[in-house]
Amino acid sequence: MSSLKTLILGTLGLAPEVLGANLLASHYTGKIFSLSYTGGGSNATLVSKSSIEGCGTLPAWLHVDTNGTIVYCVDEDWDGSGMLSSYSVQPDGSLKQTGRAITAGASVHGSPYGKGSEDGYGFIATVQYDPSTLSTYKLPLSNASTLAQKLQFNMTEPGPNSRQNAPHPHAAQLDPTGKYLIVPDLGADLVRIFSIDAETGNLTACEPGKADPGDGPRHGAWWAPTAGSTAGQRLYTVNELGNSVSAWTATYPEDGCLSLTKTQTLSTYAEGSKAPNGSKAAEVQVSGHFLYAANRADETFGPQNDSLATYSIDPASGDIKWVEATPAHAWFPRTFSINREGTLVAVGGQTSSNVAIIARDPETGKLGDLVANLPIARPGTPQQEDGLSAVVWI
Length: 394
Known about the structure:
By secondary structure, the protein is mainly β. The chain is built from one helix and 29 strands. Strands 12, 13, 14, 15 and 16 form a five-stranded antiparallel beta sheet that branches. A hairpin with a 6-residue loop joins strand 27 and strand 28 (367-375).
């Protein structure tokens, strides 16, 4: 449908974004905001249409299914009682809560997986940063939901960075085949890999991918030369502690587990530049043959204006090459999201508590002007867990 929409608009001589689109933004005040983007260029507008609660006190991450109809939210509550919630997306872009489960909190990320009736998925996996755990639940969620599986991570000695005193899993993400779950572990310098039993939801640990000491992998994004094929499959991770991105080759044997081998690591800053003190790489996304990473608290483009790093991906090898840094138009950009057409990037500033919409050229991969900006709720505190937590197109 999106390609048909683009074709029709191109025939009319209009930019694809003029039809309008919806976004969601979660905030550490406990609310999820439904946003509406319309127009394009100097006529673009971004407004908040509604908000909803129901994902605990600290909604930290939003996962939208591929159809844009179901949303899962994890709660980072630190007091031992959190929530894992599901919502349906209404025609106007607002949310309606469909289920929730009581958890122990401290969750920072989650993804559905396996076989089931809820949009084809039967389970959801979440990771807990400080407890060093991976937890799974059967779908659909309800007040009667209980833990299906809990895996505790350990390490024999601390890592070189002071924050690596224990394993700190930071994401639970499906691989493109849906047969494996990866968990970047900031504390242990690992990308943990689990094979999935699609029927039971059970996860079995495989040999993890090993990052360099002190990298602190946080999130990952997948790319392949040909959509739907694992040939040439690459994983790219953003490394929070190392302020870098890494490229990994993915190998899928006929028998045994997916394996990951790191082949390349580049800074999230141009060659010859150093990451400013206190800066932390945050998020990574792929669109076409381009890779993007967000830098928090570097203020490269002035007070309270951090940077986004752009890399090109070699279509033959999957190797990445630095292209440029551009303004994030946000302070402490914890997340960002690229629309399906590849024409717009939504950046969520955590401390500035804003959603900035930036133009993107799908052919060159370059980011352009700020076309819309919207403050959300109240600003956060520098280097603290408050403010805006996530933004995503639906």
